[in-house]
Amino acid sequence: MTPSEAIGRLLRVARGVSQAKHFWFATFALCAIVLASVVYVGVRTHAPRYGDVTHERVLAAERNPRQWLTHYGDYRNRQYSGLEEINVSNVERLGLAWSMDMDTNRGVEATPIVVDGVMYVTGSWSHLYALDARTGERLWTYDPEVPGAYGPRGCCDVVSRGVGVWRGKVLLPTFDGRLIALDARTGAVIWSVDTIIDRSRAYTITGAPLIANGVVVIGNGGGEFGVRGYVTAYDVETGRQLWRFFTVPGDPARPFESEAMEMAARTWNGEWWRYGGGGTVWDSMAYDPELDLIYLGVGNGGPWAQSVRSPGGGDNLFVSSIVAVRRTTGEYVWHFQQVPGDEWDYTATQHLMLLDLNIDGELRRTIVQAPKNGFFYVLDRETGEFISARNYVPVTWTTGLDPESGRPAIAEGARYADGPATVLPGPTGAHNWHPMAFSPQTGLVYIPSLELGEAVFARDPAFAYNPLDVNVAVDFANFAYPETQETTSAIAQTLRGDLIAWDPVAQREVWRFRHRAPWNGGALATAGGLIFQGTSDGRLIALNARTGEQVWEFFSQTGVMAAPVSYEIDGEQYISVAVGWGAHYGLEWGAFALEATGGLPNISRVLTFKLDAQGQLPPGWRIPPQPRPAVAMDDRHTAETVARGRLLYTRNCAACHGGAAISGGVLPDLRNAGPSVHENWNAIVLDGMLEDRGMGRFADRLSAAEAESIRAYVLFRAHQTWGEAQRR
What SS3 class is residue 65? Predict the structure, then answer.
C-alpha cells in the first residue's frame, strides 16, 4: 500500500466512525486507527529497499563510503574506501567476524557488492549468494545451472568476477553467456537474455558487468578459441538491447556494422574473419558520467600468431586497445592502441581507472592502466591523447615507445613468423585481471604485478582452425613444463609476484612489496592508510600505504585471488574478501602453484573481518603426497608413445589438469587416477562420460590412439614422480 492509499483508507474509516452512536468509543477508535495508520505508512515508506543502487548514489559514493556499490567501488574505479575506523594504529586488532563456505570448489575471483547491509557475491560456475553483510547468513542463493559440458570452452577456469546491482535488481552474467536480472530481495528471475551472437563458437563470460546510469554493458571471452569480440548494452529495467559495439571487423563481403568497423578493416589483411579475430572485452570497463563515455579494455588478437590471422601485417584495430564509446548509442569516439598487430596475448583488458592528475601544472582528466604488456599508461580520457607511459617490469618485446604517440617500436625478432621468438612478459602478462587500487591520500596506484620469465613463441606448423578448440596458432611444445621437483623449485625461485606502489604522474616506482610467490590477489586502499591484498600462499595482509611495511596478516587456508572490499554497518567498519584458489595459474601451472601455496587446496569462502572480532576458521588441510601409482604401464607404452602423449597432453589437457600432469590442487591430479578411470579412459576423454562435471568430450580433437598416448604419458609421469619422491 502506498502512503496515498493508506491516507484514503484512513479517511473512509474516519467517516464511518464519525457516524457511530457512541461518541467516546468512536473517538478512541479513531485515535487508534490514526496511530496504527501512521505507523503502518511509516513502516511501509521506510522499509528496506534491497539493491537500492542509483546513479545518484554512485555519484555520491566518494562522500558516502559506507557501501560498496560497484565492482571497483565507484565510477572512478579506484578500489578505494573512505572508511578509516580500521587504520595503521589499530589494524593489529582486526579479527574474523564471519565466514561463509560456497557450494563450489573452483577458482573464486569475485569482488562482492554491498548495499544497505546485503552482500552479493559470486563463486565459480556463476553461483550467486545474497548474504547478510553483518553475519554472513545466506538470504538466498541462485544457481544458473551452467552445463558442465560448457566448462572446457573457457581458457582459464569457470570463474566469475561478480555482479552489478541497480534499482532492486542484481545483474548476473553467466559463464555460458547469459545476462540475468534477479530480484535483489528474493533472487527471483526478472529477465534473462542470451548475449552470444554465434553459439557455434566458444564464447564465455567471466567478467562483471558495467552499469552506467541505467545501461548495463557486458563483454565476453574466447579470444584464444577463435571468436569475434564485442560488447552489448541492455536496458537494466527490461533487458531490451540498446546497442552493440564490435571490437574487430567481420567479413568485408557483408556490410560493416559501423564506420568504426569500416575504418578498422583497413588495418587487417587476409581472411581474418574466418578465425574470429579476437579482441574480446573479457574484463575491465569504465564509465565517466561527466563525459558520458564508456571505456572498453580490448583483448588480444585471435589467433595469437598474426601471420595466420592477418598475414599481410597491419595494426589490426582494435586489438590490444582502449576504446571510448558513447553510453547512449555505442558510437565510437576514440581509441588508443597499445600493441599494434599484437601476437603475444598482450590484452588491454586490465583494470581501467579514471584519475584527475596534476600534470605539468595542469589538472588533466586521465584514464590509467597497467596492462599485460608491462607499461603503465596515462591517457587523456576525453580525447584519447597519449600523455605518458613507462614500463613497471622488465620488457623485451619492444625497444621503447614513441614519446609523442606512445606507439611501440617492436624489437627485432620479436615477431615469430620466421622462427621462435623469446620475449618478456610472457602471455600471462606483467599484470593480469587482479584489480589495482588508488589512494588519494598518497596519490599512488598499487599494482599487483607479475614476473613469470621469458616465453618462447613459435608458429604451430600443424595449426588448423576448430571453432570449439584452442586456436592460437602457437606451438605449445615450446612452453616447456618442468618434470622434476628440482627443476620446478629452481624455476620457482625466479618467478615474482609484487605489489608495486606507482606514482602515475612521475611514472616511477615508490616502493615494492615482494610476495613469496606470483598470482596474488587484487588490492584495496583505505582512508585508514592501509592497503589490503590476498596472496597465493593463503594469507590476507595489510600494508602501510605510504611505506609498504606489512602491519597485519590472517591465514586464509587457501590462495586468494580476488580483491577485498570495505563497508560499514552501525558504525563498524568491515573488510571482506572472497577466497578460493584456481584460475589460469592455479590450473595450468600446477607445479608452480603447489610451490606457491605449499600444497593448499581450493576452499571457496567469503571471509569478513572487523576490529576485536574473535572468529575462527574450521581446521584446514593440505594436499597429501602423491600415492603409489595404482596402474602399471604395459608394452604399448613405448618411449615414442609417451613422447607423443606429452605433446598431445600439453596441447589439450595442461590448461586444466596442469603442465607435466601436475595438478595445482583444484582439479584431480591424473597421476593419481585409479583403475576405474584408466578402464574408462576413452569413455571419459572421447565420449564425455564426465561431461556433467565439467570434463568435456574430445572426440572431435583426438583419435583413440592419441587418447591412449595421453594415457601413456600420464602413467609415465605417475611412475616417474613416484620414483623421484622415493629417491629424495
Answer: coil
